[in-house]
Amino acid sequence: MFSLIAGPCVIESEEMIMDIAKRMKAITEELGIPYTFKASFDKANRTSITGKRGPGIEEGLRILKRVKDELGLPVATDIHEPWQAEIAAKVVDIIQIPAFLCRQTDLLVAAAKTGKKVNIKKAQFLAAWDMKNCAQKVSDSGNDDIMLCERGTCFGYNNLVVDMTGLVEMKKLGYPVIFDATHSVQKPGGNGTSTGGNREYVEYLAKAAVAVGVDGLFMETHPNPDCAWSDGPNMVVLDDMKGLLEKLIKVYKAVHEDE
Q1: Quick check: 76 and 5 in contact, CB under 8 A?
Q2: Which domain holds residue 15?
Q3: Half-sphere exposure (Cβ direction) of 203: Cα atoms closer than 13 Å
Q4: How far apart are CA 181 and CA 241, in angstroms?
Q5: What is the model's pTM?
Q6: Are 251 and 213 in contact (CB under 8 A)?
Q7: Distances in Å between the alpha carbon of 134 and those of 50, 149, 184, 219, 229?
Q8: CATH number at residue 222
């Protein structure tokens, strides 16, 4: 079965985080999907300086630790600066490298040295095979526990496109490949001072990625995405997650029925 990394884009409140984590745990346990909860303590790459960024590293990690301790879920978060790696590693199970920063050597080395699993998101301007060098920076720093994540490639102004053959190319590098189904439907900066997107296409891209044979999916979800602090237009409505995952399981079983 494919694994799932999912949660809201950014920590908006402790109450919201616990509610989403509890509901996602119940859904994934019922469906038999290995699940990691993800949320950001700081969105340092907002389109506008006025965008809400989150509670910061100290408070954010405290909330993620509560998810881990009370619900028994592994947790993931992204870092933007090398000094954050060691601090985040005290709580999280997966350290995520944002797409725009996937070639930042110091950041990759710092993440590697924590010994935690490192999920490297492919930059929107890189080819799939270019991820070899990103992964090598982590592996050469003594950590082979690496995942590579596809999140779409720049295609004209404010648009992304996903080349499904790129998933195959990344798998050739020898690491698990994750498909980010929600960021792949973004329209970066498309709303002027915030990112736009089209969540109705998440299902179709996710189905295609599962059919190609990805090892896992990344999806952001929120009870009311239209009111979310970040990435609302491309997030999956929390009430729709179970139905979407049920469809994806059917695709997975159809592809793997002879195995």
Answers
A1: yes
A2: 3-255
A3: 11
A4: 12
A5: 0.93
A6: no
A7: 31, 12, 20, 22, 30
A8: 3.20.20.70
d(CA 221, CA 224): 9
Domains of the chain: total: 1
* Per-position pLDDT tens, the chain of length 259: 999 999 999 999 999 999 999 999 999 999 999 999 999 998 776 555 656 677 899 999 999 999 999 999 999 999 999 999 999 999 999 999 999 999 999 999 999 999 999 999 999 999 999 999 999 999 999 999 999 999 999 988 888 999 999 999 999 999 999 999 999 998 765 454 445 678 899 999 999 999 999 999 999 999 999 888 877 788 999 999 999 999 999 999 999 887 6
The CA distance from 184 to 188, in Å, is 10
| DSSP output for the chain | --EEEEE-SB---HHHHHHHHHHHHHHHHHHT--EEEE-BS--TT-SSTTS---S-HHHHHHHHHHHHHHH---EEEE-SSTHHHHHHHTT-SEEEEPGGGTT-HHHHHHHHHTTSEEEEEPPTTS-GGGHHHHHHHHHTTT---EEEEE--EE-STT-EE--HHHHHHHHTTTS-EEEETTGGGEETTTTSSS-EE-GGGHHHHHHHHHHHT-SEEEEEEESSGGG-SS-GGGSEEGGGHHHHHHHHHHHHHHHTTT-
235: which 2 tokens?
Answer: 């997030």
Q: Is 232 exposed, middle or buried (0-12, 13-18, 19+ CB in 10 A)?
A: buried
